[in-house]
Amino acid sequence: MADTDTRCSRPRILCAVLLIGAGCGVTSPTSSPVSIDISAATFTRDSTTLSAVIPLTLHNHDSVTVYMAGCGARPILTLQQWTGAGWQDRTSPLGCIGNTGLIALVPGAVLADTQRCALVGRFRFAVSYGVSVSSPLNMTASGPLFAVR
C-alpha cells in the first residue's frame, strides 16, 4: 500500500481554494467591494458659493452588481465629519429634490460625481449599498479622509 504524505498535499489544496476564491470575486472581511476615491486631501471653499467642490469616483471591485440610492443619476452619499466624539453624519436639510431611485453599479464600473461641502473641518463620504434591487442598502463603504478649509 502506498504511503501518502499529507504534509505535501495540504498546501496544494489551500492554494487551489485561494485561487478559486480569488477568481470568484470573493472579498476579504475587511475590504469593501465598493470604494470611494478622492484625488486630493485638502479642498478650499470658493469665495462666492462658500463651498468646496469635491470630485470623486465610486468603483465596484466585485463580480456582482451593487445598488445604491440615487437622486436622478447622482449617488446619494453621506458626508461625515470627524469630531471629538468620532464620525458624525452631516446631512443636507433639503435631501433629494427630484427623481429618487436606485443606481446600479455593475462589476468593474466607475461612477464619477462631484459633491459640495460648505463646512470646514475633516470629512469623509460614505455610501450605503445592497446586492439586489429588493435587498436593503445595509452595507457601507467609506472614502478617505479629506479636509475643507
What descriptors fit this protein?
149 residues; 9-stranded mixed β-sheet; 3-stranded antiparallel β-sheet; mainly beta; Immunoglobulin-like
Please give the oligomerization state of what you see: single chain
**Morphology call:** globular
Number of structurally distinct domains: 1
- Uncertain segments are 1-30
Order of helices and strands: HEEEEEEEEEEEE
Evaluate the radius of gyration.
Answer: 21 Å
CATH domain fold name: Immunoglobulin-like
Give average pLDDT, whole number: 82
Name of the level-1 CATH class? Mainly Beta
Helix content: 10-25%
CATH homologous superfamily placement: Intracellular proteinase inhibitor BsuPI
Query: From the 3D coordinates, which CATH architecture would you assign?
Result: Sandwich
Question: Which secondary-structure class do the elements indicate?
Answer: mainly beta
User: What percent of residues are in strands?
Assistant: 35-45%
